[in-house]
Amino acid sequence: MEHFVKIGDNRRIIVVLGMHRSGTSAITRGLQVLGASLGENLMPPAVDNNEKGFFEDIEINALNIQALHAIGSEWFYLVPITSHDVQFLRENGYILQAVELLRKKIESANIFAFKDPRIAKISLFWNQVIEHLQLDVSYVIALRHPLSVVKSLEKRDGFFPEHSYFLWLDHVLESLRGSTGKSRVLIDYDRLIKSPDIELSRLADAFHLHVNHIELEDYKNNFL
Asked: Which of 89, 117, 141, 146 has its CA 20 to 30 A from that of 169?
């Protein structure tokens, strides 16, 4: 039998959803300006990919990859994840593993933020994890013009444009579906780059957080 532990009522999480190459890394880094913790085990930067960092928890990323492999999937497959897939993951201990991992991550943070574009694909899975922990969750959905995403994926992965357009649509729709009924904000990547003050202030207002102006200046001058 699975045993789940409820996190204290003052704990909050912010989940960043979106398609790969849509600015999820930049948005997640920006959440530090609002006082969110990203943890201490982040994926290192990669040359010619994300040279300033992914701001993605290594263990959460690894679990997502393992879960997808367990149901015979990859992030770039167009076959949707079903409730039957999630039930298989539950029966094979992946839900419990994710619950324990997220519980550990949030123990030392009042607000913990995390992202992995794979979360949009398996949002049915992560919704069950979050519901079991009874966490106060908010979502940021990263949007970027599909043509920009297609060109980026063609350069990085050699994907055909048609495939990338379908991937973009699938991830956007799953991000919207997975966050339905929850507190959520859509952030356009190009607008964030152009006006980080406005976009982060909009996030802060929506999630009842505060902008740290020293952190904001560091974000604008040393990251963006």
From this structure: 89
- How far is Cα 204 from Cα 16, in angstroms, rounded to an integer? 14
Q: How many CB atoms lie within 10 A of CB 1?
A: 2
For the CA atoms of 210, 213, 216, 217, what is the dihedral angle to 10 degrees?
Answer: 180
Residue 213: Cβ-neighbour burial (10 angstroms; 0-12, 13-18, 19+): exposed
Reading the block at residue 106, the tokens are 């949030």
Query: Which positions of the chain have pLDDT values less than 70?
Result: 1-10
Distance of CA 75 to the CA centre of its chain: 13
pLDDT at 1: 40
- Cα–Cα dist 181/4, whole Å: 23
Beta strand ranges found along 101-167 (DSSP E): 111-115, 136-143
According to the model, what pLDDT value does residue 10 have? 63
C-alpha separations of 182 from 16, 34, 135, 155 in Å: 13, 19, 12, 35
List the Cα angle 24/62/153 in 5-degree steps: 45
At 187, which helix (H) or strand (E)?
A: strand 183-188
Give the tokens for residue 7. 């996190």
Which residues have a Cβ under 8 Å from the Cβ of 205 and sit 6 or more positions away? none
